[in-house]
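Data availability excerpt. The first of two example chains:
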Amino acid sequence: MIKGLYSAFTAMEAAWRYQDVLANNIANADTAGFKREFAVQQPFEDVLLSQQAPVPAPITSRIQQVVGQIGTGTFIAEFATDFGQGMLRTTGNELDFAIQEGFFQVETPDGTVYSTRDGRFGRDANGDLVTSQGYFVLDESGQHINLPSNMVSVSVDGGILDQGVEVARLGILDFTPNQLVRAGEAHFQTTGQGQPPIGGPGLRQGLLEGSNSILVEEMTSLLAVQRTYQANQRVLSVLDGTLDQAAGQLGAL
């Protein structure tokens, strides 16, 4: 019965933590470049249930007679990021960019560099290419990009062109999933050296990549997780009442 209490508790804890992940996915369903998270659940290792054979059986027989297994609940092994591409939508804006492979490199005013798929860019007062948060967009050498005042075009490989002449090249790097650490809604910090995407980034102008979080699916998962939490809450309540009753009866003997 104590095992049942523990199993119900661990299932409730796993559901509670998963609700937080799903709620964040739902909140960012409209965030450009957002990558959804999902929880990897894993059961605790099963425990062998054994009994001793009656005397005069040999000692080895008494301690090795297995009659079954018991589980001890589940836990969240890790939270993983789904790096699948979100839907592309056309904006027609000169400095809205979407890429098929890799990540844009952007720098905050304090010098921190992030990788992102959020391509909502614009010009600041000095003509530098910046993100919607005001971060500097970096070129392939890690430097700020200064744009001419007239409209520019881009090539699929990341070149920024002024009347057909390349004036800069976007720094777009690819990483393995284990090199990316979430650092905000659509930004990641890297723990390794990135490489230019094989085959090129597939840059497209006038489009944005949306969130890969699908609202209907996330809501459905959230409802299922909430029901799991409620079911185990009822189990916990029933087992607690049974233990209370058993303790009362034993105390009366």
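And the second chain:
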Amino acid sequence: MLTILAINAAVLAACFVALWLVCLGTRDVTPVDSFWAWGMLVMAASTYVQAEGDPTRMLMLLAICGLWAARLGTFMLWRWRSHGPDRRYSALLGKAQQHKGWSFARASGQLVFATQAPLLFVVCLPVQLGQIDAAPPVGTLGYIGAAIALFGIAFETIGDAQLVAFKARPENQGKLMTSGLWRYTRHPNYFGDATTWWGLWLIAAETSTGLAAVVGPMLLTWTLMKWSGAPTVEKRLAKTREGYAEYVARTSGFIPMPPRRG
């Protein structure tokens, strides 16, 4: 197991260094968001060619991770090409360069790539550790996990599609999205993301090694709810969208629920 994880870590580090070098030329680190998805698929595929676990479980984890990565990775790449550099990264790196005197290379390497690589490695532990044990075969819990993961992918896909369609209408410029799935949760994309990885963990959790991967979805959920996900989005929307306080008052922050009255 340790050998597989060590090889995966080396592969991931090489990928991040290569991407960092590319971003030095463009002076834009936004593509790292797309690689956040593709990198997890790389970890699943790297494990798949090394491990000798239950073939069905291995294929389930690789296939569902691949579906999730293709959806999110392609969407993030499209968003970058359509909307340009992410303002969050521009602000983060700009402050480091202005106030600390750091070069773009140091700021991007230390604040973006060196932080995201270990986070990515830990979050996708379910598709790594879940492929290692040869027994037991996939059971009821594994198939329930697969259904939950697929539901999560569908949920975040629908949420993102609804938001893109809403923003594409000129009459909605500057307005707040409060319909569709966004009526039941302020972050359907984040909820779907977390749900997917909890489902993948359930597939892995039927094995003793995979059970330990629970730290992955736990870290992802905390990140989305408390750190770099919802808090950063909500702070910006509270300043730029009229009626956001009322929307927060009636709409669940994460788990979809019927809107609160009053």
